[in-house]
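Recall that a protein's primary structure is simply its ordered list of amino acids. Everything else, from secondary elements to tertiary packing, is in principle encoded there. The following example makes that idea concrete.
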Amino acid sequence: MKVKYDWIHVVQGAETKDITFPLIDSGFFKDWTLLQIEGEEPVVHEEVDPKAKGAAAGKKPPVDPKKAASKLEEITDNRARTISYEKDFAVEGSGSLEVSQDIAVKFSETILTMQIFDTDRESSEETLVDTVKIDLSCLLFQEGPLNMSWRFDKLKPMALNYLNFTVKADQPLLSDYFRKKLNPLQINLVSIKDIPFKTEPKYKPIYATLEFIDGTSFTSFEQPQQPHCRFLHRHVFLVGQHDPVHFKELLATTPVRVILHDCDEYVSEDADHNFSVGVASFTLRDFLRPFCRELKLRSDVFPKKRLEADHT
């Protein structure tokens, strides 16, 4: 198996159109750094200076075939065991990333996609077996050094117990200047409970869409049909791009709506996709008060008809 993911690539001095997210192949798990085999002591790796590590990235120490063969012969227990690997991509980067306003906007709109492939040993043909997604906009909200991790432990491939993805940086993505100019506002869609969940296979997984006051939106990742869903989905809006007077008016008059999709069905592409949903509404008006920097809000979810009558 192998994992591929898309990460930002910036041409120095480029405009927004030259900022891309090419797909990066992480290689086979067997070529990653071995951390531990279940039932054995953790593998100790010496700390290496990043510069020296980068210089030696292309050099691999020779492997003694006799030792490798004897290691395989020692394995007499053929039960399934958990083997932990990791891979650090810092040495393969092209130096530091200077986040401009265009790059910040790209991060606010980007969903990182990790694809898990299974490779046929004979034909070397790769088959996509699962896809997981990460909202990268939350990286813009951190004020100190970055150290954020995501854990996926309910993957389709039975051979994978879990997959951890970590982003680290010595400094925050946004400098003090761009933080004041772009004014990142983070919304954390925590959870929804007491959902009348469905057990029939015709219903799709549950997800929610948050509609922000400026007309933009984001969609949470899918959860299995269940009575309580913990989304814990963070998304950042760069509100500094708006006209301050107009944005204050939106805060005072326009609610934030969360649309709960728990009744969507698997239908053909030609069929009508207008299913019943639940709607929760929130107001961010308290942000207009001086010194208000954080709100913890809760709302009931009301059923919405498929066709809403317009009484304006």
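The helical segments are 50-55, 65-74, 101-109, 176-182, 244-253. The chain has five helices and 17 strands.
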